[in-house]
Amino acid sequence: MTLISPTIEFDCIPLSQLGEREQAVVHMADLDVDEREALASMGFHEDATFELCQQGQPCIIQVEATRLGLSSELTSRIMVRRCTVCS
């Protein structure tokens, strides 16, 4: 009998699929180094909690007191976990 350990990714979705006013945690992103560094400098990094303010082009998220506008191309490559205990 072989047991397969579950992966954490099962509950991850692209940021582009998150609903407005939902809170989530950044899990991973398929971004190049420059993109990661630019977003991290604004507080949007792995394990950062944020709220989706507006879906669309641009997608507007809020990380702490900072609002960021992200392209739909970028949000389709950022994986997040819905936050059920954030606030």
Key features of this structure:
SH3 type barrels; six-stranded antiparallel sheet; alpha+beta; disordered N terminus; 87 residues
Strand content: 35-45%
Predict the CATH topology: SH3 type barrels
Physical arrangement of strands within the biggest beta sheet: 1-6-2-3-4-5
| Total of domains | 1
The CATH architecture comes to: Roll
Give the helix/strand layout.
Elements: E1 12-14, E2 23-29, H1 33-41, E3 49-54, E4 59-63, E5 66-70, H2 72-75, E6 78-82
Antiparallel strand pairs: 1-6, 2-3, 2-6, 3-4, 4-5
Describe the structure.
By secondary structure, the protein is an alpha+beta fold. The protein has a single domain, classed as Roll (SH3 type barrels), CATH 2.30.30.90. The protein is 15% helix and 36% strand. It has helices at residues 33-41, 72-75, and strands at residues 12-14, 23-29, 49-54, 59-63, 66-70, 78-82. The chain is globular, with a radius of gyration of 14 Å.
In short:
The protein is of the alpha+beta class. The protein has helices spanning 33-41, 72-75; strands spanning 12-14, 23-29, 49-54, 59-63, 66-70, 78-82. It has one domain (19-82): Roll (SH3 type barrels), CATH 2.30.30.90.
